[in-house]
Every structure is written in C-alpha cells, then in structure tokens.
C-alpha cells in the first residue's frame, strides 16, 4: 500500500470513509482545552476531515481556549463557525473587544474571560445586553490601569439585566506597587437572590458588600482576614456550603482585634451545611501567620462541622497536632482533601490517627511542615490506599525510605517531593512502582543526578508511561543526558520545567526541538521553562522556528542567554507562531501570576 498519496486533494483512502464515522470519532474528543488544536490538525489531513471538522465546530456547545493565548484573527476565523455556544472560556491576553463580542450571544450561559489586560469596562455593559441568560460570569483583570474605575456601575447594570446569574467571579492580579492605586467602590452592594456563588477580590472592590442568605459558595481575597469578617459571613449565610478566604497582608497585624482568632473560627460552627473550608494566609509581601488561632478553635470547628469534606489551612502556626489538626482528622469522617501549609507544629502524631478512622482521603498535602517524617508518611499511605494527590514540599525530613510505600498507590496521579531529601536510590524505587503518576515535582532535590532520572524512567514501572508534567527546577546536577532520557522514555510528556539547571545546554534544546519529529508516537511538548539556564544560548533561537517544537504553547526564557536575541527577533517568532507565549519575566509555567506585564 502506498501511503505517500495521502493529501487534502482527496485521492487517499481517508476520502472513502463515510463522514458520519469521522463525526462520531470527533464527538469522543474529551479534553476541552485540547479540542481546538486537535481539530485544526485533523482538518489538514483530508477534505473529508476538513468538512467534518467544520460541521463539528458548528455543533459545539462549549469551547475552552484557556490553554493558550489565541489572537483575534484566529478567534474571528473560528467564531464564524460557532452557532449556539453555551459555555465559553477565553484567554483574552491577545484578544480585542471586537473579537470577544463576536462569540457572544443570547445562548451563552457560562462565560469565563481570563487575562483581561486590554479590555475596558464597556465589555461588562455589552455582556449585560447581549447575554441576558448568563448563569456564570468570571473576569480576571489586571489593576495596572484605570479600567476598573466606574466598574461598580457597570456591574450593577449587569446584575440587574442578567436575571438568571448564579455565579459571579472577579479576580484581580495585583503587585505591591499598585495596591492602593486603583480601587472601585462597591459600598452597600447587594447581590440578587439568584446569585449563589461569589468570588471577589475585596482589595480592589472596596467597600461593604451585603451577603444574602441564598449564598452557598463564597471566595474572597482580602488584605486581612479578621474575626468580624468571618463572623459576619457565618451569621448571614446559613446555607453556606463552601467558604474560601485568602488574605495577603502587607504588614504584620499589630492590634489583637485585627486578626483571626479562635472566636472567628468557632463562629463557623453555625454553618451546618459547610463541606469545604479554605483559610489561607499568603506570604507574598511579609512573613505573617495566624498567631491568635490555637488548637481550641480547631477542636470547636471539627465538633460543629463534622460534614467537612475539604479542609485547607495555610499559615496556622499556633495550632499543634496533639489536639488541633488531629481533631479534624478524627471528627470529619467524610474528609477527602486535607491541606496544611506552614503548620510548623504538625508532627507524625496527627498522621498516625488517620489509620484509626476509615475515610475516603484522595488529596493529602503537608507543605512546609518540617516535623513530618518518613514513618508518618508510611502509616498514612498504608491506611489511605485511594490517595490521588500527595504533596510534601519543604518537608525536609522526607527521604527515600517512604517511597516504596508511595509507589504502591495505584490511584496516585500527582506527587510533589520538592525540597525533600530524596536521592537517586529513591528514584529507582519510584521508577519500579505501580503508581500511575502524571505530574511529578522534584524541585530543589539537590541529591538527584542524571543517574536518578535514568533509574526513574528507565525501569519497567508505570511512571514512564504516564508522566505528562515533570519539574526538575533547581536540580543542579541535571545535564543534557537527563533530558535525552526524558525525551526517549516519556511519550506522554507535555510540560517540562528545568529552571536553574545550570548544566542544561543548547544540546538539550535540540533534543527537545526534534522530539516531535524523531518520536512521532510521543505527545507534543506544550510548555517548557528554561529560566536561568545559562547553557542555553542564542544558538537555540533557530529551534524556535518552524518546524521545530511543533505544538509549543509556552516558553520561559528569562536569565538564559537566549533572551539576548532581542525583542525584534522574538517578535518574528511570535508572527510565525501566534499561539506561542514567550515569557521574559521569570514567571512560573503558564504565567498565572505575571501575565499582566508581558509583551509577547
């Protein structure tokens, strides 16, 4: 059989396959974030597939383009084929308002607009007019400009016109230098009865907001979490199911009444329907923790909210495990997610109690809990065999001896061992295991070398067949040889981070660039971070051009010598590959917190 005759002119065997069969296959494409790239690839294969793809696009009721920054020209080309879109998710970084408006209509029920760095507040008014049946609306803004001025009036009109709105989310990406430069008042703002879910950044949306009794899900970003805020929510939201409070203090709370204490935590006992609780203090600007909250508050919380299924507590340095964290593990029998960060007084004692009470734990995160040891981890994974996510970042006493138990977890898909004491020997154990790990972080595991990566991926275990995301940042002994092993072994790999790997060079870039051509059975690499890899020079610029790195959507190059090629030449790459984001600002993969300052 001659395979060289396949082309879009229609003389291949593909043209003889009935269109309805192709259409049925396309309906099975599962990952919404990959559907557009998949369809574009298929449309180039034959005329039958091209026609089928066009038909399939017109039948889609939802589209998720959050995985990459599509440009206006591309979106306009697709929007002509869309008919009745109900769910739309867009990365708006490279989009203008006209292109966004072109995909909106009366049928839209869910609209998520991310990275809105170039949109004016007028888009809110337009959405209110053109999408009256909207149920879910989510914005992600930057506060580097004056676009939020007058936003409250537009929002008021939207809430009045969109009478079916159930969920409103407004996120703002903010840096310290601009914290007080752009705020908009929402004084006395009251949400309509239909709204059940709100997610707001009250650092920018200033003023008092009336939380009605119909609210079931609340997520707030604040300057400071206080007893007053928590008590108010608990008092006026009796139907509350999920509560997330995040604060980012700019200074350490000085007055006792200006911080969360046991009083605020205890007030949540009145929320009888509460199943998910997140109280998080981020240390973005200052080193601050909840020093006034003790184990007593946690005991009262666990006794009054026994239906909790998810608990995330970050920054509770005053809570010990003997009575505090242990009480949650003992009382909340339906607990699925347990996430503690900066729990400096949490020890193996709390973990040992997990084995005494049966519960369906699927996600267990202990970050910066320096007293946790391998013995505690072994007891945890032995009694909780359904675990899917484990995170022991900066738990410095975690080492190789617990990896044998972890590698036996047949449902484990995500494992973070960043800043732990694991070595090459531990990688050998993990590489032979049965855990179907798709996401692995070995960031700052300084004892791991090329040999460890070979042990990890060169064995007969599952991880080499399932791994899709690998973080080797700050693993200083990694060289180009490790990259070659990764490319050869990991057919599912789509994301690789080698930040601060000083011995990774242009040779590794060449190996990665050729991956899609030399290993056609492998998935295309989508995201690559080479931040501060001084061995990557201007010579690797040629690998950014077509046909290399097919499918690449994000590339981080700050502090590598590759950045010396200059903006003009990088702009040339952008013109060739408008879907590729080149980050020169040192952001983590996907620029979740730094997109507002980008050029490309």
UniProtKB/TrEMBL annotation:
Classification of source organism: Eukaryota, Viridiplantae, Streptophyta, Embryophyta, Tracheophyta
Native species: Artemisia annua (Sweet wormwood)
SUPFAM superfamilies per the UniProt record, alphabetical: RNI-like
Name by which UniProt lists this protein: F-box domain, cyclin-like protein
Limits of the F-box/LRR-repeat protein 15-like leucin rich repeat domain: 63-593
GO biological process, one term: SCF-dependent proteasomal ubiquitin-dependent protein catabolic process
Entry GO CC: SCF ubiquitin ligase complex
Domain of life from the UniProt record: Eukaryota
InterPro entries: FBXL15_LRR, Leu-rich_rpt_Cys-con_subtyp, LRR_dom_sf
Pfam families cross-referenced by the UniProt entry: DUF7885
């Amino acid at each position: 059989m001659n395979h060289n005759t396949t082309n879009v002119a229609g003389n291949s065997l593909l043209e003889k396959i009935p269109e309805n069969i192709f259409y049925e296959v396309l309906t099975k494409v599962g990952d919404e974030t990959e559907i557009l790239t998949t369809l574009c690839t298929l449309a180039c294969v034959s005329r039958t597939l091209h026609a089928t793809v066009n038909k399939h696009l017109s039948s889609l009721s939802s589209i998720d383009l959050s995985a990459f920054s599509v440009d206006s020209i591309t979106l306009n080309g697709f929007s002509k084929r869309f008919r009745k879109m109900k769910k739309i998710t867009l990365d708006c970084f490279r989009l203008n308002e006209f292109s966004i408006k072109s995909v909106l209509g009366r049928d839209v029920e869910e609209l998520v607009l991310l990275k809105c760095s170039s949109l004016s507040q007028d888009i809110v008014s337009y959405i209110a007019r053109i999408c009256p049946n909207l149920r879910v609306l989510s914005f992600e803004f930057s506060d580097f400009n004056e676009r939020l001025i007058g936003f409250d009036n537009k929002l008021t009109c939207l809430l009045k016109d969109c009478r079916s709105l159930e969920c409103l989310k407004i996120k703002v990406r903010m840096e310290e230098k601009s914290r007080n430069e752009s705020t908009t008042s929402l004084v006395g703002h009251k949400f309509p009865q239909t709204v059940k879910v709100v997610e707001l950044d009250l650092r920018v949306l200033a003023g008092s907001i009336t939380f009605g009794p119909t609210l079931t899900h609340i997520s707030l970003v604040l300057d400071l979490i206080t007893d007053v805020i928590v008590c108010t929510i608990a008092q006026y939201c009796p139907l509350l199911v999920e509560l997330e409070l995040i604060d980012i203090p700019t200074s350490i709370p000085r007055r006792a009444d200006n911080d969360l204490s046991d009083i605020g935590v205890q007030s949540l006992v009145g929320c009888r329907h509460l199943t998910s609780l997140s109280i998080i203090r981020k240390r973005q600007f200052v080193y601050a923790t909840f020093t006034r909250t003790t184990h007593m508050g946690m005991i009262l919380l666990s006794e009054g909210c026994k239906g909790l299924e998810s608990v995330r507590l970050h920054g509770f340095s005053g809570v010990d495990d003997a009575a505090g964290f242990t009480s949650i593990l003992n009382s909340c029998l339906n607990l699925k997610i347990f996430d503690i960060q900066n729990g400096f007084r949490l020890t193996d004692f709390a973990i040992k109690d997990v084995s005494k009470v049966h519960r369906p734990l699927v996600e267990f995160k202990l970050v910066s809990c320096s007293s946790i040891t391998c013995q505690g981890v072994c007891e945890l994974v032995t009694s909780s065999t359904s675990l899917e996510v484990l995170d022991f970042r900066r738990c410095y006493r975690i080492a190789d001896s617990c990896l044998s138990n972890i590698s036996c977890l047949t449902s484990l898909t995500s494992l973070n061992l960043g800043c732990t004491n694991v070595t090459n020997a531990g990688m050998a154990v993990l590489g032979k295991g049965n855990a179907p790990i798709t996401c692995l972080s070995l960031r700052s595991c300084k004892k791991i070398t090329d040999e460890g990566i070979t042990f990890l991926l060169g064995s007969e275990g599952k991880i080499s067949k399932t791994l899709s995301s690998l973080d080797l940042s700050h693993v200083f002994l990694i060289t180009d040889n490790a990259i070659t092993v990764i490319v050869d072994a990991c057919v599912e790999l789509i994301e690789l981070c080698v930040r601060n790997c000083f011995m990774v060079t242009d040779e590794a870039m060449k190996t990665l660039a050729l991956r899609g051509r030399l290993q056609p059975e492998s998935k295309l690499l989508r995201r690559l971070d080479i931040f501060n890899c001084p061995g990557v020079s201007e010579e690797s610029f040629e690998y950014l051009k077509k046909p290399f790195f097919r499918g690449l959507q994000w590339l981080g190059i700050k502090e590598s010598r590759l950045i010396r090629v200059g903006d003009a030449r990088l702009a040339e790459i952008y013109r060739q590959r408008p879907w590729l984001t080149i980050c020169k600002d040192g952001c983590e993969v996907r620029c979740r917190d730094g997109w507002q300052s980008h050029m490309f």
